[in-house]
Write a structure and sequence with these properties.
With 108 residues, the protein is mainly α. The protein has one domain. It contains 7 helices and no strands. Helix 2 crosses helix 5. The longest helix has 23 residues.
Amino acid sequence: MPVSFEYYPKQVQDVVYNSVPGITGIGSLVFRDEEKLVSEQTEMSHRDFYRYRIYPYKGELEMWYQSHKNLWTDFIIIFLTAYSILIKKNNLVYKIFRHLPTSPFQKK
């Protein structure tokens, strides 16, 4: 959506805009429970939560993907997508991709 796209820094906008759309992505895996994250947070409005917490991290994930994009990474993302559909709890993303940007949402 144009409104939310404007919240990304220019560098991230350029990368996202020039990316070829796919059937899945690292952001789709990491934010599989995005609605739950939003509904459970109480610190700020939903709009601010997206603007200051979700969009910045999605931008970091997109930048990470662009610098690690290859056939193997895409294969693992597709595998993890199928796995997350079959197995509702998916905590493999951070185990397999150990060098993802640190999530502000991970439970410690």
